[in-house]
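Researcher: I'm preparing a figure for a lab meeting and need a structural model of a single chain. I don't have an experimental structure, so a prediction will have to do for now. The sequence is pasted below. Please return the structure as C-alpha cells so I can convert it later.
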Amino acid sequence: MVKYKLGEVEMKFADLIWENEPISSGKLVKFAAEALVWKKSTTYTVLRKLCEKGIFINENGSVKSLVSKDEYMAMQSELFLEETFAGSLPKFLAAFSKRKNLSDKEVSEIQQLIDSYKEKR
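Model: Understood. Here is the structure written out cell by cell.
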C-alpha cells in the first residue's frame, strides 16, 4: 500500500501522467511546462520522488504508473479511514450522514454495494 499522500501540485503532475501514460519523459517535460509552468529540472525532480515512492516508473525514457489513479485513490481512502475512524467504515458513514442527508438514491446505491459484497462472500 502506498502510504504517501500527494500534495496538490504533485496530484496535478500525477494526473498528467495518468491521463497520458505511457508517456515519454520528454513529452512529460513539455506537458508540465505548459500545465504547471515547471522547468525541466523540476519535472525530473518530482518524477524521481514519485518513482521512489513506488507510484510511477521511468524506464528507458518512458513513464508509466505502477499504481493506477483508481488504486491510489482507494489506498488514500483506506488510509483516511484508518487514520480518522480507526479503519471503521460504519463509523465514517455515521459521521458523514450526520452532516449530509443522504438521498434515497445514495442509500439505495450503498445498499446495492452491501448486497453485492454479501453475495461475493
